[in-house]
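Complex record, four chains
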Amino acid sequence: MQNNILIVEDDMAIREMMAFSLRREGFDTFKAASGHEALEQLNQVHPDLIVVDWGLPDMSGIDLIDMIRRDDVIKEVPIIMLTARAEENDKVKGLERGADDYLTKPASMLELMARIRAHLRRSKGFELNHKLEFQGIVMDAGAHEVMIDGEALNLSLTEFKLLKLFLQNPNKLLAREHILNHIWGRNTFVEDRTVDVHILRLRKALKAHRKDKWIQTVRGVGYKLAS
Amino acid sequence: MQNNILIVEDDMAIREMMAFSLRREGFDTFKAASGHEALEQLNQVHPDLIVVDWGLPDMSGIDLIDMIRRDDVIKEVPIIMLTARAEENDKVKGLERGADDYLTKPASMLELMARIRAHLRRSKGFELNHKLEFQGIVMDAGAHEVMIDGEALNLSLTEFKLLKLFLQNPNKLLAREHILNHIWGRNTFVEDRTVDVHILRLRKALKAHRKDKWIQTVRGVGYKLAS
DNA sequence: GTAATTTGTGACAAAACTGTCACCAAGATG
DNA sequence: CATCTTGGTGACAGTTTTGTCACAAATTAC
């Protein structure tokens, strides 16, 4: 699975040298010599990161960044601005207008590669790694999955939500009312004791893996997930 | 809601100046003069971003980054390395070992602020904006919520998963078998026609908001969400 | 020690969910 | 047009989920 980098650079020598270096580092590249060419490319391909020059023949790199950030499909792509403009206020402007990083020419290819990797690590890693974990209990809320010691745990929707609330608040005391409002909302009336019953059920589900003990009762207040 | 920045810097003059500048820009700050002090702070507070020097009295900033990246609770915090080490291979090393950004001293405070904001924009914005949308249907899978034109839609778990599959694949044709495998997995046998019944149910749920028409039948193959 | 309060628990009934089926409607083919 | 194939649909039965309740157990207070 190759990462794709879009290079937006009007100087052909620089563009080709960059593409060559990137390909040698294992990336696939797309190239554009102007802002409009870049936008056309972006209608057809979704690069994993874009390297943008400031001075393009048909628009400024800043304007291109603006447009990308406004496009619902590609707005989140990491962008590194690579330009000869080295003034402090240029850097501030580029970063404020939506670049994730700003590098001045002439730039070390090694440094550029390292920065590309750092940004990909964050944008890709966030998605891959965004799980809630506590003592061997792993939840991917987006995928609606709970794994304990490598085994899938089957929970009802209410119990799933309850466990998620605990995993989002490890070692924090959750008052019954807080739990009530969070799981059932403020516009639904359920008995206070319903929380306790669901806690019982969640504990039962976790018991097969000896994880029920982490849900601890704080008498008179509520419960907490703690080791 | 203030963003919290942890400054890990042994030079008191630099540390205080940074803290002052950050506070003037609206950030709250925590301070640490050493790696161990930083780790102790991180046991009690969760900053939104960390600025780390390389040369600390008790450990290198690189080692501190390693430790942070290995901690399940705080590993995703953005880190900017701010250091006098300006060699190319230092930069590469810092970025490879987990820094999101690398800035050499003496550094412009304005540039540092702009970079801090860029990183916060990404780490905070990713979470806030990561929703699936199609023609007024908005799903936050992590929160198990579906909103249509501002109104919550109540779906059963199976229908929720089905809608999610569609929203993840807008304008793509999904064969029945693909849907079957995705929702029920390969180890559960259900009749082919079960898909059609669940499509019916999903369409019924969407009908109240006139959104059922976006689920389109492709005869002999399956279904697609398309406008 | 006793009484009061809080939490744990099993059981129940109602509601919701789920997959299947038979029949009808729509579309494709010869 | 007739026939066959595929998708839409309402209904059904079984399972699961859900909230409540009464009683037992545990904890706290006097």
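Note: Residues 4-129 of chain A form a domain with the Rossmann fold fold (CATH 3.40.50.2300).
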